[in-house]
Each structure stands twice: as structure tokens, then as C-alpha cells.
Model the fold of this input.
Amino acid sequence: MVGFVGLHGLISDRRLRCLARCSIRAEDEDGNGSDDRLPAAWPMLNRHITGDVTARTIAANGEVSCRVVTATGLVNAAASVQKTSPVASAALGRAMICGLLLSAGKKEGETVQLELRGDGPLKTTVAISNGRGEVRGYVGDPSVVLPPNSEGHLDVGKAVGRGILAVVRNHPMWKNPYTGLTTIVSGEVAEDVASYLADSEQTPSALGAGVLVDKKGEVLAAGGFLVSMLPGATEDSIRIVEQNVQSLNMTPTELIRSGMSAADITGKLMKGLDPLEVAEGYPKYYCSCGRDRVRRTVVLLGRKDIEELIAEQGHVEATCEFCKRCYKLSPEEAMDALNAAAL
Done:
């Protein structure tokens, strides 16, 4: 899909969802072993997968910027961890690709969060990325199954539905994050993000993001591009960008399956614009929630609920929304966390 435009709560079974905005290591943050359960797809997380690349450049005259990402491996890793249906994989993948495109080249510690809150069956689609090319995300209901749309494609628009797109940009030097809100225009994700860039950030852009999923749920290709007109862009530059995008004649996934690299796609999009040397990066699906974060989050339940959980199941359990790692706190650990917070 190409777009052109000038504290989450506790779930009903009371298993605390650890929505930690942080990253995860294979062992506890304090280095201690535990009986925490790791998802089967864990080996695919927190590492670069061959073929996943970000490429970015800018026109020599400073009027046009271009970012491209190939992300088949990390989107497939996310789909495997989240156990998403094909349409949920497509929505999640597109959101993560858009997040990577928006955060590419950002400063250390700077993050971008995309959240589509729609009335479709997916309910919520979230992606969080940073300038290091680390991204993670989830959807509200990963099991959604819908018939194809009128063109025979996965109906991401219907799965997302209508509602609000929230874009949150944060930097460690800022007192508060910047949050922009806009209406979801189609639910196809790329078009919605492009509309946001034009309306809320006054950055006319051509943005494409695609995820190809086979009938077994395997992600065969995923990637996208973002070409943005910078302040002072002339009509000539705008015309060249429009021609270059239209001349692609292929979707992002078709470009990737044809054998083109991120640098190759960048070259096509920046033809005639005298681009500077392409800078490449290596994105990955990265989540680093840890036991310290879980302890702090569990405290939010309050003493009464924690004591009831311990009485019912002998421990307190929390599952990370992003990587599905399940943490189990012993009664002593849970109560120690609660008592420490009260000091």
C-alpha cells in the first residue's frame, strides 16, 4: 500500500500484561536464572536477520529525503512470536515498517510510537521504534480472520477500521513527548501515516509499506519506502519524485521479491535528484522487558490483588505484550517488590 499526500489495563483473567517500553535479555537483568517461559520463536528476536536493511539518503540540494527498509526477517519474527493471523501479520508488519521509516537516522534515545486505535476487530495496532533500527509491536487481537477485500488482498483496512492514529515522538532531552493525533483515513496503515505527515507535520510524502503472507502464515516479503519533500522543495523536485514513484510499477513486496536491495530501491526513488551517499543500517525486532520492570509493574496491582493472586495460583504471572515472554514472580518476590515500593 502506497500513500500519497501533499498504561494499558489488566486483562480479565488478571494475568498482568507487562507493557514495558524497554528491551529484553535472554537472562534476568540481575543475571539470575528463573523459570520464566520463553516463546518458541525466541531465537528470532533481538538479533539482526540477513536481508533486513534500512537505507537513507538526501538529495544534494537538500529538498528531498528518502528512506527504504527491507524487513522480511523481523516481520516474520514478530508474526511468529505474536502468533498472528495473515491479516494481523500484515497490519502489524506495515506499522513496524512505517515506524522504522520514521525513526531511521534519529538520535540516540529518540523513539517513535505509532498506535492505530480503530473500530475494526484488531482493535489496536502498536509499533515502537528508535534510531538504532530496533522495533517491536503488537495487535489487540492477533487471531482475526477476514475474507479478502474486493481486490483479492488481505483486508487490512477492515481489520483496522476507522478511528484515531496517534504518533508519539520522544527524546531523552525533551521534558515531555510530542503526541500527534489524526483520523484514520483508510486503515491501510501507510496511507494513514502519510496523511498524518502531511496534515500534522506539514511534510508531503510518498510512503509505501507492504507485507506478503502465504496461506500458511509465513511472511514472504516485507518492506517499504518513505520519500519526503523537505522545506523549500521546488516544483521540479516534486515532479521528479512523483515520476520516480510512479515508474516503480511494483509494490514494496514485489520490489523485494524481484531481488532488489534497499539501496537499489533507494536509487530508483532518487533518480535525477543527485543523492548523497546512502547510509545503511540493520534493523531488528527487539524487546527487552526484564524482571525489574515486571516487579515495578506488578506493584500497580496493589496489595489486595497481589495477595489474592498468590492465594489463588501460588505466584504472580506477567506476560510481555511485545515478545510474549511470561514472567513468574514467587510470593516472596512479589511481596518484596510491594514492600520496597511503600518505603
